[in-house]
Amino acid sequence: PRKVIILTDPGQDQAAAIMLMLGLPDRFEVMGLVATAGNIDLSYTLENSLKLLELTGRPEIPVFAGSSTPIKRDLVIADHVHGPTGMDGPTLPVPTIKPSTKQGVDFIIETLRSEPPQTVTICSLSPLTNLALALLTAPDIAARIQEVVAMAGAYFEVGNITPTAEFNVYVDPEAAQGIFGSGVKLTLLPLDVTHEMLSTRERLNAMKKLGTNCAIALAEMLTFSESFDLKKYGWNGAPLHGPCVPLFLLEPEMFQGRLINVEVETTSQLTLGMTVADWWGITTRPKNVFWVRHGDDERLFEILNQALACLP
Ligand code: BDR
After folding, report:
1. Is residue 168 within 8 Å of 151, Cβ to Cβ?
2. Are the C-beta atoms of 15 and 246 separated by less than 8 Å?
3. Is the ipTM here above 0.95?
4. Pocket test for ligand 1, best of 126, 129, 245 (most atoms within 8 A of CB)
5. pTM for the whole thing?
């Protein structure tokens, strides 16, 4: 299995991505979760991470607290989408497991330094704050990362938190730009592709019918987080962002994209956090990102359900 560190701010769609990985233990070895301030404050994303590990029967996986703020900005949250706990929907028990006393940034650095080079993948489902801080503190780890696969950015599908910015980049644009410029092998799953992955009523019903605790809880979570997007977009379902990250790692052939230059706007008030994607190769700037533009939504839900069927 592929060794992964998950950076996350659960979050209903993060829960889906985490369950997908935990349900396929022969494909993913989850080394730890780094809770990130993003969809909601760190205290909640930490607690939600612990709740998910108890729900999935994997309490031994360590959870680390990341930074409680973006690198140089005040935190912007998305409780209008995810609810006041950040992961509203089902009522899950208060977790009995505790986070590690080690800080998330230290965990990232120590793991990358102790594992053989190029054997650990970073899956980012959240703002990129903690990976950027790790790279600032320990630039040597850049060469040791196998690859970074992140749900972040938007270009053809413009923005979701401002007219031009996607939430995960907008929350910490300096972190995103730091990683885009770090030379690591980087794949982005932007809104351009996640907007194709719609959790329709039929798909959520099929999920619920699996009948396991995890499947029912996830269907309830997604039903909650959908309600905002259904009104906003008027589509037949809400985009399911997070699981695109593990699906890309499992079946990259299900996606179409290009290696291009992408830079983040970090100064403009109007377009802060915009990911400027040079899709047509207009500039000579270095090609630093594999930018995914389309994917297979049927396959995403098929694999997600396969994974859910293997969980309690
Ligand atoms: C991203 O923003 C968050 O609110 C979602 O959970 C997802 O990570 C989509 O732009």
Report:
1. yes
2. no
3. yes
4. 126
5. 0.98
